[in-house]
C-alpha cells in the first residue's frame, strides 16, 4: 500500500509532537542501535522506543515524532537542505513495516509525519538531497532478491510527496551495503554484493525526475570484501569512499566518476590500517579531503588522519591530526563539516580515559590544522559517536553521553557553535600536567594502594580503583573478593607512562590462609608474585584499572 501526491505544505494544518502525541519521556535513555542522526538544527533519536526531535535552541522542548506504541524503529535517516530538514524512518509493528517522513523547518511548529508506504519489506532507508535543494527518500530491502524504491519530495519552493517508484536493479542479485548521491539531474546508486570469490561495488544511474535507468551497471571496485561505503560529490560528479580487504590486508580506497568511466584509487598510507570510519569532501579544483580513523593493531590504537589529494585522487598527502600522538588510547569515529575553505572535524577521543568529543579546525581546506584541538563535551560524562554539520556561519555537533560511569544509559546532546567561537576557543591553552609530576604522583598512589591492602584497609584500596569499575561493582562485592588475601610487602619494579595510561610492574608478597575450592578447604602459602597493573589518569588522579582475572575484561574501553 502506498500514498502519493500529498503536498507537504498542507501538513502544516496538523501540529505535531507535544500537541499530537504528548511530551516525550525525557527519563528514557537513547537507543544506541542508531548513531546520532543530525540534520541542523535538529537531532533525531529514539528514547525508550519513542522517536524524538531535539532542537539546538535551548528554549525549544523536545518533540515526540512517534510514540513507542506505534511500533519499533528499524532504521532512520535525515538530510538538510537550505531551509529545512527531511527525516525518514521505518517502523515495524504487528501490521508489518511502514515508511514515514517529516519535513522539519528550521523554526516554528512541526507538521505531522506523512506515511509513504505500509506493509512493505524494506529494512533500510536513506535521505539524499542535491545542490538545488531537491530531496529524495530511498527505502530498500537489503540482502538476497533486493528491492529499492525512491520517493521524490520536490524542492523547498514546491514541496510535495511524489509517487514511490521502484528502481530497475534487475542485474543485482543481492545487496549488502547501499548509498546514493544526487547531482546533475541524476541519481547514482552504489551497492555492494558478493560472489563465492569476490565482492564488488556497483554503480547504477537513473535520470531525474523519471528515475529511468541510464545505462548499464558499472563496476566501481573489486575486493575480497567491503566493510563500508561513503558517497561524495566532486565537481558535480559522483564518487564513493570505501573500506576494503584484499589478500588479507585492510585499506581505504576512493572511486571517482569522470566522463562515462570510473577511476579507482587506493590511498597508499591507509593500506594496512583498520579504518573505523571515513568521511570525505571535495572542491571543484580537484582537491579531495578524506578524514578517517585507523589503527595498526600491532603498534597503536585508532588515530585521526587526514588524507588529501589535489589531482582527483592520483596522489595523496597523509597526516595525523589528532593530538597528542600517544598509542595507548584511541581517537576515532571522525565526522567532517565543510563551509567554503573552512573545515571542522569532530571525533571521540579517549586521551583522558573518559571519552570526550574533540574538534580540530582548518581555514585552508585541511592543508594546515590548528596546533591544538579543542574539547567540546564536558569532562564528567563519557561522550561518544559524534556527528557534525555546518550551516551558514554555525557548526552543529551532536553526540551521545552516558549518564554515569556505569555506562548503561545515555542521552543525546546537541550544541551550536559559530565558526568564529570555535577558532577562538582553540587559541586558549589547555592545562597539561607535566610528565614528571604525574610520575611522582603515580608512584605515591601505587604505594598507597598496596599499603592499604597490607593494612587491611579495603575501603581505601577500593577508592583507588578506576571510577568505571566502582560504578559497576559496589564496595561490599569488592571486599568479599579481596578479603581472602593477606598482603605482607610490595615493591615497585618499573613505571611506564604513555599519555594518561601507565604500566606498573611490582613484586607483591601475599598469602591466602583459607580458600574454598569446589567445597574443599585449601590455602596458598606466603610467596612473592610479579604483578603488572595498568593505571589510568582520570579526573586529575591515578586509578588502578580493574581487570577481571578470568575474562581479562574491564569496565572501560579507551
Biggest sheet details: 4 strands, antiparallel
Assign a percent range to the helix content: under 10%
| Overall domain count | 4
Q: What is the CA–CA distance across the termini?
A: 48 Å
Described by the principal axes of the CA atoms, the overall outline is: globular
Task: Describe this structure as you would to a colleague.
The chain is built from six helices and 39 strands. By secondary structure, it is mainly beta. The strands form eleven sheets. Strands 1-2-3-4 form a four-stranded antiparallel beta sheet. A four-stranded antiparallel beta sheet has the order 5-6-7-8, with no helix packed on it. A four-stranded antiparallel beta sheet has the order 9-10-12-15, with no helix packed on it. The longest helix is centred in the last third of the chain and has 20 residues, at 435-454. The radius of gyration is 27 Å and the shape is globular.
